[in-house]
Structure formats: structure tokens, C-alpha cells
Amino acid sequence: MTGVPASAAGGTGRRAPGGKLGAAAVNQASLWNIANILTMIRLVLVPAFVVLLLQDGGYDPVWRAWAWAAFAVAMITDVFDGHLARTYNLVTDFGKIADPIADKAIMAAGLICLSVLGDLPWWVTGVILFRELGITLMRFWVIRHGVIPASRGGKMKTLAQGTAVGMYVLALTGPLATLRWWVMAVAVALTVVTGLDYVRQAVVLRRQGLAAERAGSQADAAAEPPR
User: Fold this and answer.
1) pLDDT, tens digit (0-9, with 9 covering 90-100), for 169-213
2) What distance in Å separates the CA atoms of residue 31 and residue 43, rounded to the nearest whole number?
3) Is 21 helix (H, G, I), strand (E, B) or coil?
């Protein structure tokens, strides 16, 4: 995450001739900013969540309530760390890498554990994880042509997935157990639909990028003086 001056981060920058801070000092960002700390907390919560959920065979309502609390805190930090990073210019390289890893890790941990316990069909876990991993790899595939922004549908998908997994973590019965099935169904549908939309955007972005590169090459060739 790039951003705060070294002095604002509690560090000291060397002054360039003339008494001005050098560019490196001004652009230096602190690893230990609030956004990164929230990301680190979310990473630590992943193994804690797994341990709590699987205590006593994974079926104790009290331990599952504690696991839900850990999962809920992780989801809340996911909302705030990105907002804080963008608002206060706290974006760092660590955050760019660790934030999506933490997001995928907590969701994958919940889905896999629930499938291991028999609460969630493995095909649901497979569809969601395949989509998340595939979209991440696809973003790297087209990154030299541009960035695929997060869509409103993608944000709704994340909210639906988090809500559904959270409801499955809790030991719900009766109508609430039926409700969580429908919430998960909505999450899976949004996962598939938004995944296909991201694929479409990636294909269009790559085609535009390749066309721009070809046009640039032709312009450079036309500008070369005759030999």
C-alpha cells in the first residue's frame, strides 16, 4: 500500500540538498498502518476460526458460536481495511498481496471445513473456490492490459457468500436452516454469474490491449525514416 510520508508514519527521512525531503522518503509507506494491521488480524483469525469450528468434532453449538464470531470479525475487517487504505492513502505492496490472500483464505477455510463436517455439499465448495481461484489467475493474465474493477455484482456476491457461510457455521435448525440453504443458493448463483461477467470483461480488455499494441507498433513503423 503506497502512501504516507515517512514522518507521518513515525519514521525519519533524510533531507535532500536545500532542506527538502527526498522523493524516496516522501513516498515511503509504513508497513504498520491500521489497514495492514487489520489485514494481519484477518490472517491470524483464519487458523483460529478453523480450530474453533472443529472443536469437539465440529458439532458443539457453543464452539460453533465462537467460530462464527471469529468469522464475523474477519468479514468486518475485510470491509474496513480496504476503505481505510483508500481513504488515507495507506496502500502498500504488502496490502495488495496480503488482502486478497486473507479474503480467499477465510472463505476457503469456512467452505472446506463445512464440507468436511458434512454440512455443505462438496460441489458447492468446489464451484465457489474454482471461481475465486480462476478469477484471481485471470486478473494476472490481463493485468498488463489493465485492471478489472470490482463490480457491484461482485460485492453482492461477497456479501452473499459471507452471510451464507456464517449461517452455516452457526448450529441453526428449523426455518433458519431452510433459510440458510436459500441464501447459499443465491451466493452460488451470484458466484457463477459474476464469474462469467469477469471472464467477458477480461476477454474484451485483452482484445483492446492487443489492438492498441498492434496500432502502436504500426505507428512506430510508419514513423521510422526511410533507409
Assistant:
1) 998 889 999 999 999 999 999 999 999 998 998 888 888 888 887
2) 15
3) strand
Q: Cβ–Cβ contacts within 10 Å for residue 89, how many? A: 15
Residue 169: is it exposed, middle or buried by C-beta count within 10 angstroms (0-12/13-18/19+)? buried
Q: Over the stretch 52-93, which tens digit does the pLDDT of each residue have?
A: 999 999 999 999 999 999 999 999 988 888 778 778 888 787
Rounded distance between C-alpha atoms, residue 9 and residue 139, angstroms? 31
CA distances from 218 to 14, 171, 204, 209, 224 (A): 46, 64, 21, 14, 10
Angle between helices 34-54 and 93-116 (to 10 degrees): 10
Strand extents, DSSP E, the chain: 15-16, 20-21
C-alpha cell at 73: 470479525
Predicted structure pTM score: 0.77
How far is 207 from 200, CA to CA, in rounded Å?
11
Block residue for cell numbers 495507506:
90
Single-letter amino acid, residue 14: R
Q: How many CA atoms lie within 13 A of 110 on its CB side?
A: 27
> What are the helix and strand counts (H, E) for the chain?
7, 2
**Amino acid (1-letter code) at residue 137:** L
Cell representation of residue 213: 499494441
CA distance linking residue 161 with residue 158, whole number of Å: 5
The strand pairing partners of 20, in sequence order, are 16
Residue 120 near residue 111 (C-beta atoms within 8 A): yes
Contact 168, 109 (CB under 8 A): no
